Amino acid sequence: MSFILAISVLCGVFAVLAGVLIVAEKFLVNYGVCKIDINAGERELEVDGGQTMLNALIGEEIFIPSACGGRGSCGYCKITVLSGGGPVLPTETPYLTRKEMRSGVRLACQVKIREDITIKIPEELLNVKLFSATVKSTITLTHDMKEILFELGEPTEISQQPGQYAQVQAPSPEGPVFRAYSISSPSYETNTVELIVRIVPGGIGSTYLHNLGVGDPVIFTGPYGEFRLNEDPATEIVCVGGGSGMAPMKNIIYTIYDRWPDRTCWLFFGCRTTDDVFYLEEFRRLAEKHPNFHVIYGLSDPLPEGNDWDGETGFIHISADKYLEPGINRQAFLCGPPPMIEAVTRVLEEKGIKPSDIFYDKF
Ligand SMILES: Cc1cc2nc3c(=O)[nH]c(=O)nc-3n(C[C@H](O)[C@H](O)[C@H](O)COP(=O)(O)OP(=O)(O)OC[C@H]3O[C@@H](n4cnc5c(N)ncnc54)[C@H](O)[C@@H]3O)c2cc1C
Ligand code: FES
Fold first, then answer.
1. CATH code of the domain made up of 236-362
2. What CA–CA distance (Å, rounded) separates 192 from 183?
3. Less CB within 10 Å around the terminal CB: N or C of the chain?
4. Considering only CA atoms, which residue is closest to atom 3 of ligand 2?
5. Cα of 286 to ligand 1 centre, how many Å?
6. Low-confidence winner among 18-27, 64-73, 259-268 (lowest mean pLDDT)
7. Which residues pair with 149 in a beta bridge?
8. 109 CA to centre of ligand 2 in angstroms
9. How many angstroms separate the alpha carbon of residue 207 from the centre of ligand 1?
10. What is the CATH number assigned to the segment(s) 128-224?
11. Ligand 1 close to Cβ of residue 244 (< 6 A)
């Protein structure tokens, strides 16, 4: 009993000490102005010390992917720190390979600026912009899914590739936070950006987006993401997803049929019940115009009777297995929950698609 009491007291003392150190660092330690050298002198910044690298870069309108809004839980905000920056923190190690750690890769949201720092960031991130926009329309797609269309204000145009995403700023009690949403509008639509958002109960970003009305102002950064559509029209494209994973696939499909009307593309979309089905009629109309577009929706939990479902049943990887012939040159894009991605990846590899031609976003 006295042992447990001693441990509790010790923990309490450590907690108080940690709190004192955090408060002392915040209010008593002044790191002054520190320099950040980016990409060997390409940009040189002077920022207030004491803040995180992620916030310092955002303050200078350099936007690093940060899907979790700087909470250290997405692992997206990787940069290379060449000097300064201190040791790698335990909060970073789950997201970094040994090779990355050896070459100085760090999570920008965990690096505190306490001295001059030299960093390297991918060139394309220097082109990510901050956009202001207004809501042009909102459409309720299902019980938990909405399509939201933004008209760009400043800048008036966006250059995005299918598969890329934007980070929308949402208000929260602790200040603005950013959340990642794939761009569902095709890349030839340069004055608007469309998102498909699933509501997460109690979720900051998704609730904010679902409550927006026509004319409301919005701020987002982008585009982010490294997926590049194979430019060879002889390569078939396979899109497999579920839920809000529709967003990048809609962008890919419309972009493909604008550029290559005869290209072969497969859409496999998994839903639980008919209540989760959306865009099916729209895609069937597109398939009438483009006979090499194949639309396959599957219900994992079809109601036993009284429904007139004419699509597939069972998990969507089973449909992919049923329809795809092996040995054809293909690139695949998967978007949905992790178990779906894993099951589909296995099927696609069995069909002969190389792992390097299978891209995915898990959410
Ligand atoms: C690259 C990328 C692209 C994305 N694209 C889209 C998209 O096109 N459409 C879309 O709807 N979402 C997309 N997301 C997910 C999106 O970024 C948010 O994570 C999601 O909307 C939840 O954020 P929130 O602020 O509403 O919830 P938060 O305030 O972050 O979370 C609230 C609570 O819900 C839990 N939670 C968080 N996310 C989920 C979830 N997905 N399911 C269940 N519980 C959750 C949290 O643990 C927390 O307890 C994408 C994510 C990434 C990384
Ligand atoms: S912003 Fe998500 S881990 Fe850094």
1. 3.40.50.80
2. 10
3. N
4. 72
5. 30
6. 18-27
7. 137, 194
8. 6
9. 10
10. 2.40.30.10
11. yes
Mean of pLDDT values over 205-220: 98
pLDDT > 60? residue 284:
yes
Residues in contact with ligand 2 (CB, 6 Å cut-off) = 66-68, 70, 72-77, 107, 109
Atom number of ligand 2 nearest to Cα 71: 2
Q: Would you state the pLDDT for residue 362?
A: 78
The CATH superfamily holding the domain 32-125 is: Beta-grasp domain (3.10.20.30)
Residue 227 — very low, low, confident or very high, per pLDDT cuts 50/70/90? confident
pTM (whole model) above 0.85: yes
- Predicted pLDDT of residue 226: 83
* Ligand 1 pocket mutation, candidates 144, 200, 206, criterion most atoms within 8 A of CB: 200
Angstrom CA distances, 197 to 93, 146, 187, stand at: 31, 5, 19
| Ligand 2 centroid distance, CA of 170 (Å) | 16
Q: Hey, which bits of the chain come out as E strands? A: 33-38, 43-48, 78-83, 105-107, 117-120, 129-140, 145-154, 165-170, 177-182, 192-198, 217-224, 236-242, 265-271, 293-299, 312-313, 330-336, 358-362
Residue type, 37: D
| Ligand 1 probe mutation, 128, 141, 181, most atoms within 8 A of CB | 181
**Nearest ligand to the CA atom of 71:** 2
Mean pLDDT, rounded, for 215-219: 98
Atom of ligand 2 nearest to the CA of 109: 4
How long is the chain? 363
Q: Where are the domains of the chain?
A: 32-125, 128-224, 236-362
pLDDT above 60 for 24: no
What are the C-alpha distances in Å from 91 to residues 64, 95, 111?
18, 8, 10
Residue 308: band (very low, low, confident or very high) from pLDDT cuts 50, 70, 90: confident
The reported pLDDT for the residue numbered 253 is: 98
